[in-house]
Amino acid sequence: MLSFESFEELLSKNFSNYINLYRNDKYIGVNINKEILYSLIKYLKEHDELIFNQLIDITAIDYPSRELRFDVVYILLSLSLNQRVIVKTSLNENDTLESITNLYKSANWYERECYDLFGIKFV
User: Fold this and answer.
1) b/e map of 30-66 (b: 16 or more CB within 10 Å)?
2) Residue 1 binned pLDDT confidence (cut-offs 50, 70, 90)
3) pLDDT bracket for residue 5 (50, 70, 90)
4) Would you state the torsion angle of the CA atoms of residues 82, 27, 23, 72, taken in this order, to the nearest 10 degrees?
5) How many angstroms separate the CA atoms of 119 and 117, rounded?
6) How far apart are alpha carbons 74 and 107 in whole angstroms?
7) Fewest beta carbons less than 10 Å away: which of 35, 97, 114, 123?
């Protein structure tokens, strides 16, 4: 299993100004700005030491009273490391996110579901 410190060090090289990391006994979490979400997910999938090659889910949480109304949550799995990572970003009601369907084919279904349930648009 990947240590939190190793994971933090790998991400700090490219994303240190844009992320907030946390962990518990089951997964590592990353809060990130929506503008670099796609870059981070691509990095997690393609980096030789990480290889988060399986998309488990994309979902959203609606907080109607917040300015950044939605949290969009991506759950990724690295089979080789036996490690999950949860990537979360917040957005306004009319914001869009870059689609990750070219990285994970299964994202197509999850992104359409987020659009149908929450109106979140993926470009």
Assistant:
1) bebebebbeebbebbbeeeebbbeebeebebeeeeee
2) low
3) confident
4) 130
5) 6
6) 10
7) 123
Do 59 and 110 meet the contact criterion of CB atoms below 8 Å apart?
yes
Residue type (1 letter), 74: Y
3-state secondary structure the chain: CCCHHHHHHHHHHHHCCCEEEEECCCCEEEEECHHHHHHHHHHHHHCCCCCCCEEEEEEEEECCCCCCCEEEEEEEEECCCCEEEEEEEEECCCCEECCCCCCCCCHHHHHHHHHHHHCCEEC
- Please tell me whether the overall predicted TM-score, pTM, comes out greater than 0.85 for this model: yes
Nearest CA among 105, 123, 117 for reference residue 55 = 105
Angle at 51 between CA 49 and CA 54, to 5 degrees: 160
Amino acid occupying residue 65: S
Question: Measured in whole angstroms, how far is the alpha carbon of residue 56 from the centre of its chain?
Answer: 11
